[in-house]
């Protein structure tokens, strides 16, 4: 799959890839809270490029800034940071999973409660979000966004508990699904991870002040120390005391279940330099390439990565197979805005806007093309064609993850099941023919499990969330069981603001 | 007072004037609903130039557009109107009474209820708005704006009645103060005026379709027919039937009290060509000038209006006194944006950015300067000085309304009481000295009542709302009696979005 | 004609009016040079609302800012003024006479000469501009704008004289037509008026520093003293000396001819509070109304001005006739941007976007409608209809200037001759029928001359430029005699920048 | 040096790199001329990200669009392309070498000549540009930009030849330095390369229509065929005939000299997939890494590239040395606008905004760090520190080009000589200490020559332009010999437009 080695041009040209919804970052007790949050979000930019927001509190008042576009387009300039004073801040960067990209959906969301203001930021998706929303509206709630996250805010506002952290716990006990969530009040920074631990969330420390963020790369950018992963089902409540010291309380409000981190964090989402679940992502991806070379060897002249996502696996494949690694595809990082909806005459030039073949290393060669994953296959089709046009004598496609059969409901934006390549073809041979390669192979599920965790998948107690490959969803899917028609009611108001 | 004859440059240079908060317009059943609403709002632009919004419904979906600035800067271009399809629309133009001019405060406000969407637009102010807001938040409501109007929306959302119009009536029975309010649902257009009828609201008709708007000038611009004033305490519910016909229901949910329209609509706010409470505003203002000439005659050479607000009264004064009416002050209508906060070196040039003396008709003359009202007196001071600098031998200030002593709580943005000219000086002579005139006279309260309604004020049953002159508030002031401190909690979140 | 009493909303809805091209302002030796220039241009905004530019010099470097839109939309805010440091500045505000409204056409224009930089700003039009441009291009000049003014810049650059003022004089001796021009160099401020004195130009003084500007109202706004009119054919060269003192040299490089100021400055363009050619414009316009009442009396109930242009003449008409003056038409000053090209459904509402009838003073009345001039008649048609719709029993149109038959080539944007009302009808009766009035009368040319200068027109030596009424052009028209086809070559490059 | 493998984030965080000024593209006779030009410029975006412009001609008129920012931010959307109709187009993308980034400097530049319009676009720099400009101004030319290119336009305008192509040749014979230039007239597309061939320029063909562009990657993106390099000193004139056919004329107006292409095109500027001077750039860079491994071997555990510029050389180094290639530095491509001038608190985080260490592959390892070049050394210093902080036991810096001692005057923006690392230290050891590495080595000049052309440098007849390494400038430097003071005169006018 295209694009994940530490970055992605601001806009994608096609939708033949998966998208994570969000990255979160929060810090308590630091005088540069908003600046550090902006930098942390910048490091998490690969988790969502559509919009970013920050809320801060300075002991007097809450402040918020929300902007469409990159963190580095708006935040961290003195004028914007001057509008976000204070020593507590949380931030959020997002990719829209729906067509609606309005500012009102940009997180963090804020509410003024009787007990004071609260802001929340959330990565993930609730499997009972629509069901809860219907109940809230029936009970007189006014929803201003179409975001799942607002449901939590209403549950907090309506909770009968007194303290804001009790209300927060009360609220998250009612939601199901995958989430890593941050909340801030006038004195507290709260972090919570869903009972199964689908989405990642880590704790760090800078100058003795606690930080929570989606990935360790957001700690590295500011020179913060990694403390530990937040455990599945855990709620960590940090509170600044009148004397400036910070107390930390850890609770597990729900019944314990084994952790099952989302495999796609390893396959595609996380930054290669992040450590997720104790494992360096780059090394895991190289392992995938090594295992792929073992499972699906091929007699060839060069190993060419589909940049940037396929690069680590290609390095692994090359090292294992002894075939030279070469940059046979060059990526143009300057994509810009107007290429989003190119005119017909430009669309005809297709994938070349972002990639071009490096003919000199391809011409007359037998090429092993390594990518991290295949979703619809429409991009693979074009890439293979491009390699052939550049004169390759053979093109062998090697994919460093299994075939994708099932949609996700925990925060990954997947196409409908019948659009997936694996569901459109009866067998591997048909897929291979569709994308135009001489051979095609996917890493096995066991090969993937071994690359990540060291051992094969245990079907009775799988170590990871892997339903897109296996169909084994780790939770029930309440909204999916209800009537689809309710979905439509939620977007009755079209707006640009 | 500066500026009211049918228009005002987009931004005011000083705050020595009163501001109305809003104008409203709504229409049901017309294929050009949004276009007609935009035109109606354009005619009501003098009631608020800060921002404007329109909501429409096309049988499928609600649409909304909200923009800072003039109606004519954004609406009525094909691209914007294309985003507002449908046959029902309500619109709102506003002047911000607080420092916060965020888009989220721009009306109409919208909520998705269990029974379907509802939008409301509101001119006026609630005297128990903060009290209600506190109760709602304690009860778990999340307020997204700092606008009074949102309170009504929450009351509607939480009402236990089934139909949207019953819920609307249920809600407005809980608010106190001055308001003219429009609401729209998927089938209804609802108009309501407060029990005392402080703010104006009229009903009209175009092609057989009902229209509600703040002033008759919004009917005139689209060639619509004036039907009648909405009565104080009246709720009018128009509903489009499945066959396209429109039913109208009129109810008076609250105990009847006599109407008391706000006198300042006549003195300053309403457009001179509007008919308010059955009276042409221009003619009323001319009467004020006639009565002023009778009450406070002066031996002089020319009558000069302070444009544009003082012009009708000056015409009346000139006709009654026989002294020639001359344009001794020229107004520059091209004020633009950057003059809002002029640099110190520019501020020194003061009022001349907007006005200049027409020396030829002033030099060596005894001038009667006629203005509609005086608030702080800071502008009058500069105008009198400008006339003197232009060579007037005498300057006699005549004000076509009484002295202002008391703040308003029904939708007019007044300065704090101790900033008012009348409260800063012990007598008329001191005021006259402050503004630098040779003589100063205000129209008496009876003179004003006679100019408007034909007879003197009856202290036991005053015909109009006149507390700014008399201290006689027409309702209780619940929020004012409560703790001021609560006010601060409502703006805990600073935002630009 | 619509719109001239001291102001005009930013954009016009129709083109049934004449447009002046420009206003100019310059000051030498003052530490607030750019600020004062911005204020002066603000006062001259009625001479052109499309764009404005300022050039300043601070002893080291020239600076320039050019912006589309109103002076008050961009200039005079601290950030913009900070980019215009120095003690010499000239500025220009313009109305585009062509469809092309690009920034590159905004004046002042600047060139770096061998002898140092020079900037020029210009009000008027050359009658040999195209002819000169053709010669320059043939001689290797590169023209960057489509503006007439650039021709002068090239003539200066190519002049063989050494000093910049000698080069300037050399250049203007080659151009023909009507112009008031300012130039600035590193030490000089130069003002020049064409040999016939068609366009106005005055000299003033602030704190002992010389100012040149189009009208006296630009002196008044900054409290500067009026010194004198620049005479026709005069070049005034002010130079700042090393000791800071300012020398002034006056020359008349061309053969003397009698001055003939453009009558339309009195009829429509100049601000009513300006003194043009020694005459207060407001008083002159009142005189036109007085003479009109004498020439074309009518038995009626009210005199109603077409605001704002017709107001002074209406006051004069009312005073002379004894018929009461009333504001029967209310003007909406908040026109905004999107009404420029209204959609068809809005266009149908026509002139009402800007004006509305004040029914109460019109209904059942015999109305004398007074306007300053009629160009095409399309607006008059709508205004008369609007007055009739408001219930007038009779409508008598009185125009305070003669019929317009001929186009202008000296800086006034006139429609083609066959679009003019006077050329479309064989007699007054036919015109009256077209606009729908009960009677129609124009002020005679002698009546106009008497209103302005006190005596009737001397056909042998007319005191003013009046060709639009009489066909008597004050200069030869070289470009008109050449081939029209050359005009097209000049706009070969379409650009938005 | 940071950033060159096929792309660069829109804005650089520091100036420790060299910048190319421009890329050019032109096509004649194709119905999609402007679209193809936009795509070609997109592929050349690495040669300049500041601004881009396109001029087209449709048989009637010339059209131009110029925009600050990326090609993909503005061009290729239907609205912009619709403003560029026609079958001839040339385009230009630029990096500003001066602080002035005004639109008026954006190319192509256009002039309306007596013989019709001409537009030119130019990559490179003239060594006698200022000298010519002084002569032109003395001769009455008005320069509107501060761009070198305008000089050529004036020389064309003033040429006494009749045809536009003769005028073009006449003009370029007067300029000295390095340039690849395109010109278009109403019928012709002209390409010219300087006599030494410093800057690259190639010819291609699409659907039988001629294309000229800076690099072959601009042909690849549109599927065009590569024809040949334009030779040094060659002028190619393509003309569309009345019957639609295209004639081609090739001339060499100047005395032949051997070609000396700029080595930095191979080291850093050109895209790795381009073929420059018949050599694939990626392969040349890999050769540099191979030669570097031979010249400066080191006992180490991993080879880590400084991305993206150092990647091909690192692959070569790894293959030659047998040390594994690993992605030890991750680059963040989402840099955005506000990081350009980061606040002090952010600046402290330094290079990490763009790069981060991938700790897992570095910790405890002996690292060979491979970069393409070192300019000031300030970035290398930070990168080495970052690698050490990530736990490397040793850091060996290897640079795939020689030390830089001398500034460039042919279109590369180099810092002043005394800012260059090589000039700030007396020997390699001192440099090594400064950047904090355990060892430091540069590729020798002969090693570089061999990597590019196969054989060592012949000091008597060097095959390439290499003065930055050797001081051997390929032309005289006329402007440098003149007075520096003249430079200042050229920016006397500060402007934002």
From TrEMBL, chains A, B, C, D:
The gene is purF. The active site is at 22 (nucleophile). Pfam families: GATase_7, Pribosyltran. The keyword Glycosyltransferase applies. InterPro entries: GATase_2_dom, Ntn_hydrolases_N, PRTase-like, PRTase_dom, PurF, PurF_N. It comes from the Bacteria. Keywords: Glutamine amidotransferase, Glycosyltransferase, Purine biosynthesis, Transferase. Residues 22-241 form the Glutamine amidotransferase type-2 domain. This is Amidophosphoribosyltransferase. It comes from Phyllobacterium phragmitis. Catalyzes the formation of phosphoribosylamine from phosphoribosylpyrophosphate (PRPP) and glutamine. Pathway: Purine metabolism; IMP biosynthesis via de novo pathway; N(1)-(5-phospho-D-ribosyl)glycinamide from 5-phospho-alpha-D-ribose 1-diphosphate: step 1/2. It catalyses: 5-phospho-beta-D-ribosylamine + L-glutamate + diphosphate = 5-phospho-alpha-D-ribose 1-diphosphate + L-glutamine + H2O. Its EC number is 2.4.2.14. In the C-terminal section; belongs to the purine/pyrimidine phosphoribosyltransferase family. NCBIfam families: purF.
């Amino acid at each position: 799959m295209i694009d994940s080695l530490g970055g992605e041009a601001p806009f994608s040209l096609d939708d033949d890839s998966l998208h994570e919804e969000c990255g979160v970052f929060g810090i308590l007790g630091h005088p540069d809270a908003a600046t550090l949050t902006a930098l942390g979000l910048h490091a998490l930019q690969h988790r969502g490029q559509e919009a970013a927001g920050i809320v801060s509190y300075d002991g007097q008042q809450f402040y918020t800034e929300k902007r469409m576009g990159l963190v580095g387009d708006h935040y961290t300039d003195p004028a914007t940071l001057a509008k976000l004073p204070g020593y507590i801040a949380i931030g959020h960067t997002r990719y829209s999973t729906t067509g609606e990209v309005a500012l009102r959906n940009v997180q963090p969301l804020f509410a003024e409660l009787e007990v004071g203001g609260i802001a929340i930021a959330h990565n993930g998706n609730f499997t009972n979000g629509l069901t809860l929303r219907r109940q809230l509206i029936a009970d007189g709630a006014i929803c201003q966004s179409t975001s799942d996250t607002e449901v939590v805010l209403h549950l907090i506002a309506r909770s009968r508990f007194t303290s804001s952290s009790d209300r927060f716990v009360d609220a998250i006990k009612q939601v199901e699904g995958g989430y890593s969530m941050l909340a801030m009040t006038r004195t507290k920074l709260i972090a919570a991870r869903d009972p199964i631990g689908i989405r990642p969330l880590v704790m760090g420390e800078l100058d003795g002040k606690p930080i929570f963020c989606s990935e360790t790369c957001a700690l590295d950018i500011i020179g913060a120390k990694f403390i530990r992963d937040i455990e599945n089902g855990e709620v960590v409540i940090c509170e600044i005391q009148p004397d400036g010291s910070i107390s930390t309380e850890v609770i597990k409000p729900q019944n314990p279940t084994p952790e099952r981190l989302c495999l796609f964090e390893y396959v595609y989402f996380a930054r290669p330099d992040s450590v997720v679940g104790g494992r360096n992502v780059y090394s895991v991806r190289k392992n995938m390439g090594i295992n792929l070379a073992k499972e699906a060897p091929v007699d060839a002249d060069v190993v060419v990565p589909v940049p940037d996502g396929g690069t680590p696996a290609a390095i692994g494949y090359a090292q294992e197979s002894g075939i030279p690694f070469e940059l046979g595809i060059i990526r143009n990082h300057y994509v810009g805005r107007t290429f989003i909806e190119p005119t017909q005459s430009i669309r005809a030039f297709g994938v070349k806007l972002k990639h071009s073949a490096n003919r000199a290393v391809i011409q007359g060669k037998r090429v092993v093309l390594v990518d991290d994953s295949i979703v619809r296959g429409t991009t693979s089709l074009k890439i293979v064609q491009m390699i052939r046009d550049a004169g390759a004598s053979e093109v062998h496609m090697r994919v460093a993850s299994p075939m994708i059969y099932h949609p996700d409901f925990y925060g990954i934006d997947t196409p409908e099941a019948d659009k997936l390549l694996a569901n459109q073809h009866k067998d591997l041979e048909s897929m291979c023919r569709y994308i135009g390669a001489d051979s095609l192979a996917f890493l096995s599920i066991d090969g993937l499990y071994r690359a990540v965790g060291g051992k094969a998948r245990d079907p009775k107690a799988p170590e990871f969330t892997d339903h897109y490959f296996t169909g084994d969803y780790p939770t029930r899917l309440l909204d999916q069981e209800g009537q689809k028609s309710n979905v439509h009611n939620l977007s009755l108001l079209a707006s640009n603001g």
